[in-house]
Amino acid sequence: MPMEIKRKRTRRLYVGDVPIGAGAPIAVQSMTNTDTRNILSTMGQINRLSEAGCEIVRLAIPDMEAANAFSEIKKEARVPLIADIHFDYRLALAALDAGADGLRINPGNIGGQRAINKVVTRALESNVPIRIGVNSGSLQREILQKYGSPSPEAMVESAMKHVRLLEESGFDQIKISLKSSNVIDTIRAYELLAERVDYPLHLGVTEAGTLISGTVKSAIGIGYLLAEGIGDTFRVSLTRDPVDEVRVAYEILRALDIRHRGPEIISCPTCGRCEIDLLSLVDKVEVALSHMEASPKVAIMGCVVNGPGEAKEADIGIAGGRGQGILFKKGEPEKKVPEEKLAEVLIEEVKRLEVEESKGQRVKG
Known about the structure:
Helix content is 43%, strand content 19%. By secondary structure, it is of the alpha/beta class. It has two domains: 13-255, TIM Barrel; 264-364, Sulfite Reductase Hemoprotein, domain 1 (2-Layer Sandwich), CATH 3.30.413. Helix 10 (278-288) links the parallel strand 11 (264-267) and strand 12 (297-301). It is elongated and about 70 Å long.
């Protein structure tokens, strides 16, 4: 039986039409890495993120030109947009006027209590939540002096200080993130914070790194916390195309049996018994099916030892042999396929299965 995860109960808020907290599905986020002032490029990336399953997109707003561009982008976006603001509260006000669905700020660095009050007043009027984003690399000087390092305890104290700033202004539509590039510190910080607040928590390991190192850090840090029932939304941070962040995010959710989106591809690591070009085959199939919402299990195996067994257990599978493969569908062998046709046939069969299951669901409904 799959592990049952008991989630920590948190408050409910909305980013646009996406519910966060109080048992809502754990939402997948990402952030554009385009220049927000380049409307066409940024809009194109938002669309690709949306197609990949990203449910909330964050944009950097470094100046008023970017805030003006954000206004135009918001008119066309199909997903909720969060404005990421630092140092200048007027940018937050401009983003709210432009229709931002959420703000990400550090209340302590946008201009003092008067500035915070102005942002909070406008956010309340617009019914827009604010994420307090604490990063181990930018803690307040006095907190660093107190703890001597950006420790988990230091990050939690910083977060609570920011929370009080918002609460003193009468604001409680708050999300909180505590991010460090150190996985253990990140885990411990969220554990400590989860004991103190019931605000929704946004998970992440910041500056996680390249595709491999960043995926490993995020899978361990975010996955560990989710397995503990901590976290309501998250972003995987990679030095890559942000679409890859979304793909990794859904694989983390799938591995914990929390949410399923897109096909689950099972493939062997290859060895001396493999007699087909499995690497190219897997790459072709993965790219072709990357935008599917349905989540069939697809086995792509390279030899006759484990291949037939794995292929039988999948919804659709290939067990490769010398220059060919056997196609399995729902556990039954269907036909032999020459190697050069394997990718094409497998992709067609998976898409056909998606259509068949979609028709079946409509009939049941």
